[in-house]
Structure to design on (294 residues):
């Protein structure tokens, strides 16, 4: 490798992710995180995996299709979604996590912004916390509660950017410089997590496509993922089936596969290395091909 093609130390840091005892080298191979929503109201799979048996069967299917990680969520965060109580979120997750224990080899992530919920999921075998509020809940000294929990349990984090709350986030979101502001916010959250003792290799950053962003904000973020990767953590993106494809192409939720794959490939080429998707098999195929061209 010549000096010109050697990645900088910062970019090298953005090309590895540590989960449990595993250290993933993301320089030439991205990770696919299969989504399972145990909710009645998620925007694309709401109600489908509510019965624990169905959720577990789907998890096993996504693992067979080649998922590297699975992300289990029990509260919809689609625009306008109503919040769910801690008890309700736990009661949706526990039967699934208990049944999954020992049945799949790949790491589990829990998609929650509530430390109480994350603690229960980590007790039941989850190894990653995917916090769509970007570690918003803080203790009296300003330390993020989720990062303190991650440090205690040796868990990894996906730190996502959201402007406001799901109920109101799509009401005229405004930024001066969306790429810079989202990046600054995520970098500050990562720094706070590192100050809590979380290893930098255990932190992935996600621009939060669709979370308090207009179509143009989403496109701008996707065009400049390399600027987020330059912050020194692996970049995760969730574009799968999202409403930007409805807005751009006039497609219904169940017609967005090709657009989701194209966006994933474009994101890979701009430096994203974790892909949160509903359609695992198709995404794995698309990414494996694109990786051969990196
Ligand atoms: N998107 C959703 C939920 N969690 N987490 C990360 N890190 N990145 C994302 O883009 C992201 C996420 C929304 O998608 P989904 O879970 O399918 O829908 P809902 O929130 O309605 O359950």
């Amino acid at each position: 490798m010549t000096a010109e093609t050697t990645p900088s130390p910062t970019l090298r840091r953005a090309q590895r992710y540590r989960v449990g005892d595993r250290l993933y080298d993301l320089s030439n191979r991205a990770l696919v995180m299969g989504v399972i929503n145990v909710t009645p109201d998620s925007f694309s799979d709401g109600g489908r995996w509510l019965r624990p048996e169905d959720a577990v069967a789907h998890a096993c299917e996504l693992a067979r299709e080649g998922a590297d990680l699975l992300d289990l969520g029990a509260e919809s965060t689609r625009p306008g979604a109503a919040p769910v109580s801690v008890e309700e979120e736990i009661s949706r997750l526990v039967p699934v996590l208990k049944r999954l224990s020992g049945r799949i080899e790949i790491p589990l992530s829990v998609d929650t912004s509530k430390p109480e919920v994350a603690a229960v999921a980590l007790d039941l075998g989850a190894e990653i916390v995917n916090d769509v509020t970007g570690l918003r809940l803080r203790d009296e000294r300003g330390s993020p509660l989720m990062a303190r929990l991650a440090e205690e349990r040796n868990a990894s984090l996906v730190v996502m950017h959201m402007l406001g709350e799901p109920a109101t986030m799509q009401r005229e979101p405004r930024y001066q410089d969306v790429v810079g502001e989202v990046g600054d916010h995520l970098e500050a959250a990562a720094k706070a997590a590192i100050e809590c003792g979380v290893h930098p290799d255990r932190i992935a950053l996600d621009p939060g496509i669709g979370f308090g962003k207009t179509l143009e904000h989403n496109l701008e973020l996707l065009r400049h993922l390399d600027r987020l990767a330059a912050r020194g953590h692996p970049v995760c993106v969730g574009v799968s089936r999202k409403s930007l494809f409805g807005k751009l192409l006039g497609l219904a939720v169940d017609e967005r596969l090709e657009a989701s794959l194209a966006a994933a490939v474009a994101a890979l080429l701009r430096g994203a290395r974790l892909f949160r998707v509903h359609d695992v098999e198709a995404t794995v195929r698309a990414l494996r091909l694109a990786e051969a061209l990196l």
About this structure: Strands lie at 16-19, 22-25, 31-37, 69-73, 108-111, 128-131, 156-160, 203-206, 235-237, 272-277. Residues 35, 37, 39, 42-44, 73, 76-78, 111, 130, 132, 158, 160, 206, 208-209, 236, 238, 276 surround 6-hydroxymethylpterin-diphosphate (CB under 6 Å). The longest strand covers residues 31-37.
